[in-house]
Every structure is written in C-alpha cells, then in structure tokens.
Amino acid sequence: MKEFDKITKLSESMKSIGINASNIAAPIWELPYAKQENEYKHYKEDIDKYHSQSVTLTNDEINLLIMSIDNGYATYKKLKELVPRLNSPTLCEYLTCPPPFKIEPPPLSMDHYYIRPNTSFSFFTFSNPPNDYYLPYEFKDSDTFYLSTEGKNELSNLKKQASLDDIAEKNLNAALRSAESSADAAKYAKISILVAVLSMVISVVLHYI
Predict the structure, then answer these.
(1) Closest CA to 146 of 96, 93, 82, 100
(2) DSSP 56
(3) Measuring CA to CA, which residue among 95, 96, 114, 94 is closest to residue 104?
(4) Which residues, in sequence order, are CB contacts of 28 under 8 Å at separation 6+?
(5) From CA 96, how far away is CA 120, in angstroms rounded?
(6) What is the pTM of this model?
(7) 115 to each of 6, 37, 74, 98, 111, how far by Cα in Å?
(8) pLDDT tens by residue, 10-27
(9) Radius of gyration over alpha carbons of the chain, in Å?
C-alpha cells in the first residue's frame, strides 16, 4: 500500500508541474513503428506502381507459355518473344513463389495480413531466385522457369484436348469421304438404271421395225 501511495504522489507531483506520465512512455513505444511506417509508406508506393503495370493474359497466351516451357522455352527472353505483352509484374501473378516484401509492413497495418490471390493460376516456378528477389523485381532475360504442378496438370489437359480434337477431325474427314463415296455410288446406280431402261426401249423399237 505504501508503494502505491508513493506512485500516486509521484504522479500528482508530475501533473502539478505539467508532466503527463503517459506522454513519456508513448514516444518510446511509437518511435520505432513510426519510422517503419514511414519507410513502408514510400516503399508501398513503388509496389503499387509496379503492380499497376500488370496485365491479364488471355487463355491462349497462357497456354502458349505452358506449351513452350514444356518444349524447352524456359528463359524470360523466350517467353517475352512468344507473348510480347508479358512483363515482370504480370509474370509474378502466375508464379508459385512471387517476390516477397523487402520492407515488412508495420504490425498493425492491413498489409501485414495480406494473402496473395489467384494461387490456382500459379502455373510457373522461378528456377533460381537471386538474393535480391524482392518486390518490385524486374526479371532478367536469362532468368529461367519451369512448370509447377498446376502447370503440368494444365499441360496434360491441353494435350488431351489436342488429342481429342485430332480424333474428332479425323472422324469428320472419314465421314465426309464416306458421304462422298455414298453419293458417287448412288449417282452411278442411277446412271446404270437409266442405261438399262434405255436399252430396253431401244430393243422394243428395233423389234417392231
């Protein structure tokens, strides 16, 4: 009880000379986070600018990238040649391991609980991320990629679809050839009947001459 009285008297004494005890502790607590928040604010502006350059690839463009990587076209340079619209922020949207933040958001920031969307479209994996692999990362022409499990599954589906399309095309061509053969056969049958009838007519006429 005596210790509590001492603290109370000390607090009252500080108030009497215009000092608030809570104002002493606050700067000690807030200073590190204020600095971190200021650094992150400027960094976040660069990140937002980086992501604003991202584009949504079409299904045909994604399929082209998937099939080209399966055929050995794994460098960033080759991917850009196949899909000219591709850039670094766009490719990040389709990676299994996109570049992380270099400066972590403050503990109370909503960005601290950020969850990356579109994980079901992570078709590619960066082969050997360098030490400076942080947002905003610009891929080099020599950076290489391989298909993720999701990418391999999609490639398998594309091959199955291509096989089915090939079978369907072959069946269609066979049906057309069959139809043409049937049409020719029917035409020749009609001609044969006409020839036979004509022969009978000629025979009858010659009989009465």
Answers:
(1) 96
(2) P
(3) 114
(4) none
(5) 9
(6) 0.61
(7) 50, 20, 28, 12, 9
(8) 556 655 655 554 554 445
(9) 39
